[in-house]
Amino acid sequence: MSDTIFSRIIRGEIPCHRVYEDAHMLAFxxxxxxxxxxxxxxxxxxxxxxxALSDDAAAAVGxxxxxxxxxxxxxxxxxxxxxxxxxGAAAHQAVFHxxxxxxxxxxxxxxxxxxxxxxPATRPEAGEIAELAMQIAAAI
Length: 140
Ligand code: AMP
Description:
This protein is α+β, with helices and mostly antiparallel strands. It is about 30% helix and about 20% strand.
């Protein structure tokens, strides 16, 4: 299990702008927001990536994440938002403690402001998709 800057925030060793806390979860403002109201939601379990999270911690995420989204929407006035959850260096993860970004989106967000998304959709053979579906289903 990882000991990261987020574990230190959970233990109160370094400060944060806290917006929510319970026995299993903490939410606080991102220190370098990419949009106004950018908020981080973290389980207290020090799992580095989502696949390592326990079922109990995952349930705690599910219980509070929609409520925190509602609060961010209400406080910022944003009508749209993205949930971003990075796992692994190749996926742009910098802090190896599971976290969900709530990133409000505003009219006028464009290149150079807010979250940029590149979505390079492809058209694989149907057989290839079916094969992967079977492999993933078998791995559950
Ligand atoms: P990620 O690339 O998904 O690992 O994102 C890590 C996020 O943590 C970044 O958006 C950082 O700005 C944020 N962050 C890092 N250190 C702190 C801190 N001490 N307080 C609040 N947010 C932080």
